[in-house]
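Human:
If only I could read backbone structure tokens as easily as an amino acid sequence. I am handing you a single protein, as its sequence and its fold in token form. I hope you can help me see how the letters and the tokens relate. Thank you; the sequence and its tokens follow:
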Amino acid sequence: MPKKLDRRRVICFSHIKGGVAKTTCCVNVGAGLARKGYRTLLIDMDPQSSLTDVFLGPDYRVEKSIYHVLYEKDNGTGRELPISQVIRPVADNLDLAPASLDLIRLEHLLLTEVDGRDRLRRALRDLEGYDFVVIDTSPSVGLLTSNAMIAATDLIIPVQASYFALKGIENIMGTFSTIKERVNEDLNLLGVCITMVDLRKRHPQDVISDLEEIFPKELVFKTLIREVAKVEASPGYHKDIFSFAPNSAGARDFDNFIKEIIERCRNS
């Protein structure tokens, strides 16, 4: 059994740019934490439902999703559905609160609600039994992402090893700062993770240098998530990298990344 943390950590992976491996990180970090013995819950807050698809498959019919937790009223109680009623076990120590396309409607539906940005935090308040909660978000800074950050204890920003991925940093940091100052003062920037790295190219080092001009050096994770075929292929087989290719470079990268995450959580 792993050494327990002093409190549950709710980690939000977020970036306004798509294609930076947010979902890939959530899949493999969640699966890796579970394999290390930590009870882990994955929450899919992206209407594209890619995280849900990896674990439940495209043909799985999601009858109740995180949408029902955030908005739709239960006929019996007149309140939103408890999150425990939508959670599905997907592996040992690993559960999933799935998404559905209904989430697209929430940006509009929650806009006029007084507590529209606080629904996920309230849903998690009474949920027990998890060491980690890992939240996948959509590539935007709307109500869904705000809900995820307000519910989170920690934010990780994945950044693709390319010039264009740096362009959204200012926007996501603006949202982080606003939420930390006004709503969730305990929100911690756990770090920035560089993903999709091709070590044959010069770009990764350029991105690292640029990031170290924006963030303190200690905030940039040492582990680089390499762009390798096994990591790219595993979601198509509905598997995490540890199940699909346990001896691959991608599995080693994510294992090292997870060790860094755990260490940072212990020290913050």
